Amino acid sequence: MLFNSFEYALFLPLVFIVYWTIGSENLKAQNAFILVSSYVFYAFWDWRFLFLIFSSSILDYFISLKIYKTTHPKSKKLLVLTSVIWNIGILFIFKYYNFFTTSFSELFGMTNSYVINILLPVGLSFYTFQTISYTVDVYRGKIKPTNQLLEFLTFVSFFPQLVAGPIERASKLLPQFFKNREFSSSEFRNGLRQILWGLFKKIVIADNLALAVNVYFSNPEDFQSLELFSALVLFYFQIYCDFSGYVDIAIGTAKLFGFNLSVNFRLPHFAKSIPEFWRKWNITLSTWFRDYVYIPLLLNTNRTIIRTSLGLLLTFVLIGFWHGANWTFIIFGAIHGIYMIIYKYLPKISPKLIKKYGLTTAYSLLLIAICFTLSSLAGVFFRSESSDKAFYILKRIFSLVPDHDFETIIGLKILVLPLLLLIELITQKKDFPFLNLQNHASRPIRWMIYYIFIFLIIRYGGPQESFIYFQF
Q1: Does any domain span residue 288?
Q2: Which of 269, 323, 336, 404 is catalytic?
Q3: Do 195 and 113 share a structural domain?
Q4: Does residue 1 form part of some domain?
Q5: Does a structural domain hold residue 328?
Q6: What is the pLDDT, as a whole number, of residue 357?
Q7: CB–CB of 56/128 below 8 Å?
Q8: Among 162, 181, 200, which residue terminates a domain?
Q9: 369 & 392 share domain
Q10: Tens digit of pLDDT for each residue in 287-336?
């Protein structure tokens, strides 16, 4: 069930009405209804995969309780390893098995790669990481496990963020299922506003940009340097508006039910460095890898330049591989790992010197341009079907062949990008542009804004596309 589908437009109001009819005084009944609704939501893709999410939830629930009660260090470690191996094992079978068997067969020239015909369950990478972090945090003593099975099952399967995040920590989301949630008209309005903003980014911007990006990447031989680089820029904004649009809808939906989810994007295209970019892009994923991969890798070692660099490189290779079982994603991650190493050890120009010569604004714009260009160039591996095709596109870009007949395939619709950037710049201190709009605009102005955006969604919406991150 897509957030931008007719089915969801029926599903959400129905769940909302029943949920608040049950009432905040019946907390258990509300949680049970959310759990059932979440499983129904997930079953729209394939009801058979409900067994996976249920089994992972049950396993981690009981293992975490056992870890908390066990005093023997080796027993605790064995229990947490059981949880990690189970969850990573499920992820491996459904997402990575065919990649490894095919790569192994090609490496040794074998004809049979033992590929299995199996679908990737939607959202598997997201809720798997959510349950792993819960068990590991219990093992580390950062949180106490809950003995309330209903609330834990609901925490894992909460439908607004189930299939594409944000990846929530138990310390933030789980306690919200134990508190009475009173209906708030202000949160209700802000939730609807954030959903509207998310739909605008997804339907008007991302889906329309996809039309142009698909043409460029399907036939790169038909285009020259500037056109192909513009395709990378368009793809950046396509995936940004697609994924951040989903997250806005997810956060807005959660607000309708009295929940707060984590912010996952903070204008990454205005980042001045690659490390800052990853502090602003898919924040819950990058912090997950920081806390559960990068820091443990270096925890008991001397942090030499070589070890720190290898830790960064490995972490970002895994981030890339998390996105998909393809060499393109591994290369994408490796490129960002190299970026991170360079930025970490690159000599910094003194801010006082920059300020002395009045170059603060110009220098900031230069840093933003460099960071955006680097991230866009790495994106060719994220988008391409094969590494050969990605290298071919980069070769044509750097060939610097003049574009005598340069034209933008998307036409005048590309003007929506300056509109997006202008709105984001003006409202950059807010979690989303329409937040608490009643404090800044009169009712007639507010409704005029809403109707304009609704009109744009209806009039200029591209063909319905699935969210890109659903495939991960």
Answers
A1: yes
A2: 323
A3: no
A4: no
A5: yes
A6: 66
A7: yes
A8: 181
A9: yes
A10: 999 999 999 988 877 788 899 999 999 999 999 999 988 999 999 999 99
One domain, residues 169 and 201: no
* 462 — pLDDT class (breaks 50, 70, 90): low
> Which of the listed residues 126, 161, 181 is the one where a domain comes to its end?
181
Q: Is residue 323 flagged as an active site residue?
A: yes
Among residues 161, 206, 155, 197, the alpha carbon closest in space to that of 467 is found at 206
Give the 3-state DSSP-derived string for the chain, with helices as H, strands as E and coil as C. Answer: CCCCCHHHHHHHHHHHHHHHHHCCCCHHHHHHHHHHHHHHHHHHHHHHHHHHHHHHHHHHHHHHHHHHHCCCHHHHHHHHHHHHHHHHHHHHHHHHHHHHHHHHHHHCCCCCCCCCCCCCCCCHHHHHHHHHHHHHHHHHCCCCCCCCHHHHHHHHHCHHHCCCCCCCCHHHHHHHHCCCCCCCHHHHHHHHHHHHHHHHHHHHHHHHHHHHHHHHHHCHHHCCHHHHHHHHHHHHHHHHHHHHHHHHHHHHHHHHCCCCCCCCCCCHHHCCCHHHHHHHCCHHHHHHHHHHHHHHHHCCCCCCHHHHHHHHHHHHHHHHHHHCCCHHHHHHHHHHHHHHHHHHHCCCCCHHHHHHCCCHHHHHHHHHHHHHHHHHHHHHHHHCCCHHHHHHHHHHHHCCCCCCCCCCCCHHHHHHHHHHHHHHHHCCCCCCCCCCHHHCCCHHHHHHHHHHHHHHHHHHCCCCCCCHHHHC
Q: Assess contact for 182 and 422: CB atoms under 8 A.
A: no
Q: Do residues 155 and 205 share a domain? A: no
Structure tokens at 274: 């690659």
User: CA–CA separation, 372 vs 273, rounded Å?
Assistant: 9
Residue with tokens 């598997």: 124
The two tokens of residue 328 are: 């393109």
Question: Does 320 share its domain with 378?
Answer: yes
Cβ neighbours, 10 Å, residue 253: 25
pTM for the predicted model, two decimal places: 0.92
Q: Number of structural domains, the chain?
A: 2
Distance CA 172, CA 152 (A): 13
Q: Is the peptide bond before 73 cis (omega within 30 degrees of 0)?
A: no
Range of the domain at 36: 6-181
Tell me if 159 is assigned to some domain.
yes
- 71 and 208 both lie in a single domain: no
Examine the domain organization and report whether 212 and 83 are in the same domain.
Answer: no
Average pLDDT over residues 133-137: 96
> 442 or 105: whose pLDDT is higher?
442
Residues 307 and 399 in one domain: yes
What is the C-alpha separation between 3 and 40, in angstroms, rounded? 14
